[in-house]
Amino acid sequence: MPVMAIEHRDEDLSGSRFEGVDLSGTRLERVRLKDVAIERANLSGARVRSIYWDGGRIRGIEMRDVEITGELDNVTINGVEVGPLIDAELARRHPEYGLLRPTIAAGFREIWPVVEALWDGTVARARTLEARDPELLHEGVDGEWSFVETLRHLVFATDAWVRRGILGDPSPWDPLDLPWDEMPDTPGVPRDRSVRPTLDDVLALRADRMAGVRALIAHLTDERLAELTAPVEGPGWPPPHAFPVAEPLHVVLNEEWWHRQYAERDLTALAAREGIALDMKEPR
Description:
The protein is mainly α. The chain has a domain at about 105-275: Four Helix Bundle (Hemerythrin (Met), subunit A) (Up-down Bundle), CATH 1.20.120. The chain contains 6 helices and 2 strands, in the order E-E-H-H-H-H-H-H. The protein has a two-stranded antiparallel sheet with strand order 1-2. The model has no long low-confidence stretch (mean pLDDT about 90).
């Protein structure tokens, strides 16, 4: 018999037992499920997002029509570590993927123009949707960021890891910067999900930030890559730690590549819904 939905907020329910209970449609947010045991459960249609999972075990599972997107390290399925297999397949599909973690300065100078060229193609496809209806670029797909929000997040990533992390600016933010959703509210760091800038406004910011990365990489040396950054005090991201210069640059490359993949996926979905043909050719 259906019962009234119950909300539990900021409670300690550790050690609870749920058996023969229907939790369909339940929302779990900011919960600790460490050492939880789930047995004989139906997870059809479950949506799991922004999860940290270390040391878990899934056994006796029947899985089909499941999409997994994320960072996989030492993940074994039926006795096979899948991370290297996925990396190899990604490199086969996208030749630039194998260049995303350079260890020398010349490697950064090789990959960065490729990243910029790939984004030029993606923006051109976004322009096709914009010509139909500019609001499409403010529309998320399946709960993900819109195209404009994705670009705003990449401005934040560059501000955080290059302008703050490497160059030492304690407050490099633009009002359009967009941190990741789970980042705690931080004094001085903007997070306005309601603002709806034009694509041109955000692209102007992107052009400025990407030019800054380009200039940094142009003068990069192998010795500089190994140097530690000076910790930046005060509220913001990253925290006041010292990093080898290569590390923030790797973060930026990773953000640029993966968020472009997500943007392409969602632009394709929007275009299909609207009956718009997109040119999917990528530069080589």
